[in-house]
Amino acid sequence: MNVEGKEVTYGYSSGTYARLNPMFDRVSLLPRQEDIDKLGSGIGRRDWQQRFELVYEMAKDQNVTATMGVTPVILHFARYIKNRYGKLPRDIWKPHALFCTSVRKIQFKYGPVLKKYFGDVPVVEMYTATEGVFGQQLDDWPYITPNYDTYFFEVATGKGVKLLHELKRGEWGRLIVSSCMLPRYDIGDMVEAAGKNYFRIFGRRSTLTLLEHSLYRAFLGWTL
Fold first, then answer.
1. Domain chopping of the chain, boundaries
2. Which residue, 34, 65, 123, 142, is most buried by CB atoms nearer than 10 A?
3. CA 127, CA 86: separation in Å to the nearest integer?
4. How far apart are the first and last CA of the chain?
């Protein structure tokens, strides 16, 4: 992209942030994306062990203030450190927060386990995908708040398509996201309104997800 006569590279939010982060003064990612890419794109056990070892070696003597990424990967990294070095991440680093993405039930399923490894540190849920950062948890309530300033959100409900902010508490449906790159993108995730501009993503649309959600609503109440 040409900006004021200069060529600027760009991409989706996750890749853009990873590539441009070393330019920032206040915080920096460790390792840099280029270092991780050199290990290849394999997804086998040995491939992930090499990545975990790279992270450990580069970060073991650093003041790590936060961890950010796919939630199960963060958990597997913690277990790798324990199994290989006999230490817990909390014995090596004192992070201020864990920014966790990409799976459902982060606070209830993963939060307690992550705190066993990293200490009593806030677990912050972020709703992200390759297509962008759509929302994040802003306080102690286990819900996300959408980024309305960047994306246009619609929801396909049983009563038709509604704007996300129009959903009443307890209403739910299939999320549709629009951006300058992807108009009306049916991402396949299911969203439910919790009221007061709080929402939760409870899984990909499937028969099992819908059945599980119906049972959840039948036996559990709201906490907000």
1. 1-129, 151-224
2. 123
3. 32
4. 45
- Cβ neighbors of 196 (< 8 A, separation 6 or more) are 224
Q: Residue 172's beta-bridge partner residues? A: 192
Q: Which residue has the tokens 């396909």?
A: 156
The structure tokens listed for 60 are 């073991």
pLDDT, tens digit (0-9, with 9 covering 90-100), for 177-201: 998 888 999 998 999 999 999 999 9
**DSSP β-bridge partners for residue 115:** none
Burial pattern 78-96, b for ≥16 Cβ within 10 A else e, equals bebbeeeeeebbbebbebe
Q: What is the pTM of this model?
A: 0.81
Cα(214)–Cα(53) distance, integer angstroms? 42
